[in-house]
Design goal:
single chain; about 350 residues; Rossmann fold; seven-stranded parallel β-sheet; about 45% helix; binds thymidine-5'-diphosphate
Length: about 350
């Protein structure tokens, strides 16, 4: 088994690489990553020393790169983590999302067909379902994305669906919940707030913080994806979640406690996502559980452990928040609302 992990230097992709090296002792792991701002080789420092791992820099939307790797490495399985994934960045600019999350998926599908891969697993998100006030999304729920980002992920998924039907491509889809844990680029709620609180800065909560997200640890998310790769049925989609729903304020309270900060570090700002801010995400996971998989990490304890990881791994994240690109995004997106608290 030779598994190509696209986006393997990113947050969930790198967790998957670690998991796959452990659980697939015979497999070779080939990583393709564009090393954008959110993909970092320091995340894979240990894994890259493993003789079973091969790394290639490059974009999934480049067919020459993708097909070259499939040919040179004899790839049998492909797991696609490569994506632009930050909702707030997509509020400012969505072209790069469509390039990677839609056109990139098309490129992978074409290559998978040409090289007759055994399996292609596409990693998607529960956000493609849109928002749900009560009850839970199942895999049969309609795809109704509300944000520029989730619409780009839905576009990729629809290409997968069509390739399965039109060409019999042996593809599967996973739809994961909001993910947290080590090596998470500090722009999404949890890692962004942790690094700001460590630095003694206020955290910008959108509106009243009553939105609900379903959180899953990156090791559980990666484990669920690996389980679907091995045991899922071709042509099917699987929700990968932890049924662990929290309001943003509940999450922020734990982060304040664990960093030793008080309520004064919360700054409520007008919602920058406007009408595109989904109120609640919630999924059933019966389909995945029926394959014999369950998440293991308890939320609150693992979230506190994540805060401690950021406290003791400043050398990983400090250079990332000092880049010009990062500073520019934070200024552009939060500057007007945070003012002197930026
Ligand atoms: P995020 O981590 O960006 O994930 P997603 O939008 O994909 O669910 O956001 C999680 C929640 O946190 C969402 O309701 C928006 C909110 N949020 C803030 O209140 N402030 C912030 O600075 C960020 C990044 C998110």
């Amino acid at each position: 088994m030779t598994v190509l992990v696209t986006g393997g230097a990113g947050f969930i992709g790198s967790a998957f690489v670690r998991q796959a090296l452990k659980d697939l002792p015979e497999a070779r792991i080939v990583i393709l990553d564009a090393l954008t701002y959110a993909g970092n080789l320091s995340t894979l420092e240990n894994e890259l020393k493993n003789p079973r791992v091969q790394f290639y820099p490059g974009k999934i939307q480049d067919p020459t790169v993708v097909e070259g790797i499939l040919k040179a490495e004899g790839v049998t399985h492909l797991v696609n983590f490569a994506a632009e994934s930050h909702n707030d960045r997509a509020m400012l600019e969505v072209g790069s999302f469509i390039q990677t999350d839609v056109y990139g998926v098309y490129t992978l599908l074409e290559a998978a067909r040409k090289f007759k891969l055994e399996r292609l697993l596409h990693v998607s998100t529960d956000e493609v379902y849109g928002s749900i006030d009560t009850g839970h999304f199942t895999e049969a729920s309609p795809i109704e994305p509300n944000t520029p980002y989730s619409a780009s992920k839905a576009g990729g998924e629809l290409q997968i669906r069509a390739a399965i039907k039109a060409h019999g491509t042996p593809a599967l889809i996973t739809r994961g919940g909001n993910t947290y844990g080590p090596y998470h680029f500090p722009e999404k709620l949890i890692p962004f707030f942790i690094v700001r609180l460590i630095d003694g800065k206020k955290v910008p909560v959108y509106g009243d913080g009553s939105q609900v997200r379903e959180w899953i640890h990156c090791d559980d998310h990666a484990g669920g994806i690996l389980h679907v790769l091995q045991h899922g049925q071709i042509g099917e989609a699987y929700n990968v979640g932890d049924k662990n729903e929290r309001t943003n304020m509940e999450v922020v309270k734990i982060l304040l406690e664990e960093t030793g900060r008080d309520q004064n570090f919360i700054k409520s700002i007008p919602d920058p996502r406007r009408g595109a801010h989904d109120k609640r995400y919630s999924m059933t996971t019966d389909k995945l559980e029926a394959l014999g998989w369950k998440p293991k990490k308890p939320f609150e304890e693992s979230l506190r452990e994540t805060v401690r990881w950021y406290k003791s791994n400043e050398s990983w994240w400090r250079p990332l928040v000092q880049t010009e690109d990062y500073q520019r995004f934070i200024r552009a997106f939060y500057g007007p609302a945070l003012g002197e608290d930026l």
